[in-house]
Request: fold
Amino acid sequence: MNYNPSLYEINIRTFLKRFGEDATLEKIPREYWLELRSKGIDYVWLMGIWKTCEESVDKYCFEDYLIKSYDKALGDWRRRDVIGSPFAIDKYEINPRLGTEESLLNLKNELNDIGIKLILDFVPNHFGADTSLLREIPDIFLKADESNYLKDPHTFFKPFDNRDEYYAHGRDPFFPAWQDTIQVNLMSRKARGYYIDILGNMTRLCDGIRCDMAMLAMNNVFKNTWAGVYNKSEEDSDVEFWEEIIGAVRSVRNDFIFIAEAYWDLEWKLQRQGFDFTYDKKLTDRIIAGYVKDIHDHLMAEESYQKKSVRFIENHDEERSVTLLGKEKALAAAVIISTIQGMRFYFDGQFEGKKIKLPVQLGREPVEPVNKEIKNFYDKLLSIVSSDVLKKGKWTLLEPAPAWDGNSTYLNMLAWEWTHQHKNCLVVINFSDKTSACRIKLDLRDYYDEILLNDLLNDKVYRRSSEEIIMQGLYIELKPYASHIFMWE
Reply:
């Protein structure tokens, strides 16, 4: 497995239209992937590759709140642009509008040849409400009875007019049910066996999976969510869902990557159950809030946990970082998530400064100009963080000290150090809207009287006294939301 790898998410259904209205996977030029690899990208996640239930679009995708989101993101949208949620899957077959299984395998081989691994979606909690699997293997879904349906027709539904059968829609217990989905009975041995077969096939098609809302599949979460509906049977499994699924898949391919979208402080438990990486949404929220101490304290978690954390400021669920944070704060946030331990996660359009969050139900994206300043910044940042010292090095959180008595702006500073072999890197970020100063002590006892600090982010070299840095600390002064990334040997 890569050290501190970089993951890049692409909404494949809209992305392909950049190469033609009916473009398929074969139309993506090799040069595109080579450019991503040159930026240090280790994994590409193609979000939305699987076949969805097109008949569900008219039923579920024109609610008022969705129409408002379409209007906001794509002012000239038309009915044909609404293609349904990529997470309301019919079955795990490549969407024929995007390509074939052969073209997906060819793409995987091409990416692997370049040095990139392919990640695809796995949505364990549910399928699309109109999935063909409801006729083929109905026993894998969570059944309900008529009384459930009559009490709560938003959460339960009757899929067939000529059958008195009732099922649950998929749901997160803190929100209304997703009506375009049907809930899987995650305790069912038949459902788990079906998933193990599906994932066994996926080990051929990709190198890992991003597991949607992974915590919903944990045994206690599932049982608590569906208390009063789920009735245990002799056909159900008592083994923890993810331990059983991951264990079975790893017996087929032991290097297959599992990435969990996870919330509710269950990340550590999911890591213990076998996940290689789990979302770190708490860090994202703390970056948005902007409280430096909270960010600092969050980064004091034990190393094994941090190395398995997915650090991000954008993905398809989040507002664009430039829109949410403003340009300067967004770039400072990018430095944070790119220079700490764990998986660095970026979203297509982030490097170009895109501002519009696109609802996942839309199949066409708006045209946005490239922000050259942001693009140049990311080009430089990604070049720096793809170096061995920030990929394979030892990371240490540092404690900025006051630059002089009575100056409290050091509290606005975040700092950490990377060391690898004979190379060193110091990252310092002023994560505030005011010019701030601090001192940072470094162990330079083996260095000459002076040291040259090469600030790769700002193309400047500083000559400083080693003794002063050891005794008093390196003096740092930064403008609002500015950063240094120093390298020295």
Summary: The chain has 19 helices and 23 strands. The radius of gyration is 24 Å.
